[in-house]
Amino acid sequence: MTFVQLIDCRTSRFDEVDRLLDTWVEQTKGKRTATHALVGKDRADASHLIEIVEFPSYEEAMRNSGLPETDRIFREMVALCEERPTFTDLEVVRDEQLYAANARRFFEALATAGDLPPMNDLLREDIHSHNPINPQDMIGLDSARAEFRMWRAAFDFVFTVDDLITQGDRACARWTWNATHKADFMGIPATGKRVTMTGTTTFRFAPDGKIAETWWQHDQLGLMQQLGALDALER
Length: 235
What we know:
Blueprint: E1 3-10, H1 14-27, E2 36-41, E3 48-55, H2 58-65, H3 68-80, E4 86-91, H4 96-110, E5 123-130, E6 138-139, H5 141-154, E7 155-167, E8 170-181, E9 194-205, E10 211-218, H6 220-226, H7 231-234
Parallel strand pairs: 5-10
Antiparallel strand pairs: 1-3, 1-4, 2-3, 5-6, 7-8, 8-9, 9-10
Helix pairs in contact: 1-3
């Protein structure tokens, strides 16, 4: 789960604090665990600064705090402030940007070369998947992985995310799927054909950012036509 730390301080020596932060970034390069940091200045009080620092987890934040460079820079920062900075530790319980990033990571993981990744960092154990290609909904991480392996066994493919919209705990992706048919798929022997399919996937995310539910809509008829499965019907 993403962790955010708010550092609240008051100083009339902003330029010096700003240079000090640059020094910290330089000295901790390759060591720091912070993934994103920004500094805001209070419009009503120019001496009031808030730094917002994002970490992958609380544990990573503590590891970052334990760096000698962080301790040294913090002591120098305290000397530049009118009063000792205060810290607020926040566990992120909702982050729509995180949801969008994880939706993209999901499509990348599906197309990863080699073995299918475990995906337990992206999918909940009780994930619920609605897909019209299946007679019944798929429930559970093992069932979802089995379905993904079925597609991966039959095709080499990549996804292109054409649009991605987030709202609340939902994200909707419009995608294009380009693939090579390399093995049996629903009784159709390998054709070696290059095929394309378009579709959408709607995601519901749990508060920890993992995917809890998916709804798939895709051009299955167009895919079957490209594979030649409809030729006999058309004659």
